Amino acid sequence: MQLDHSLVVVTGGASGIGYASAARFVRDGARVVISGRDTDKLRAAAARLGDNVLPVQADTTRPEEMKQVYQCAVDHFQCDVTAVVANAGISRQTPVGDTSLAQFSEILSINVSGVFVTVQEALPYLARPASIILVASLAAGQGTKHFSAYCASKAAVVSLAKSLAAELADRQIRVNSISPGVVKTPIFDTLGISPAQLAQWSNVIPLKRPAEPNEVAAAIAFLASEESRYMTGADLAIDGGMSGISPF
Question: Which residue of the set 150, 162, 208, 230 is catalytic?
Answer without folding.
Answer: 150
